[in-house]
Design goal:
two-stranded antiparallel ribbon; 138 residues; alpha+beta; 3-stranded antiparallel sheet
Length: 138
Amino acid sequence: MSTRNFITRVPDDRLAKLPVYAQDEINMARRYIAELEAELEALVNPDHSVTTFADPHASRPKPIGDNPTVRHRLADGSEIEVTCQPHKVTVSANGKSFHQRLVMVPQVSNVVDVVLTDETTWPQDPRPKSSDQWKVNR
């Protein structure tokens, strides 16, 4: 682990004298600090054998492991799952509504937006129906 230790640790004998809720808060903060230290260490000294990064073009790319599965929960409770494999990326979604569909919207040559849309709000098919009296036969 890193030699950067700017946080004073509460001695265990002093921690035992505190109320239980305070002990829980301090233990939770300790776990959170350990996670942040591990993340900082991974950013400062990245593992070069890792093949997948959160932002590969950043000044300090953040490694997320080999062939990871990343799940993102949207505000409405829907989930989008991205599975990275060596030569393939799979995107799937689990919408809260039966009418939600996953749509990939290209932005530039190497960027797409992943959107869950409600198919009930899509525009109607502009082609004329067979029963349309103004249909033009071609």
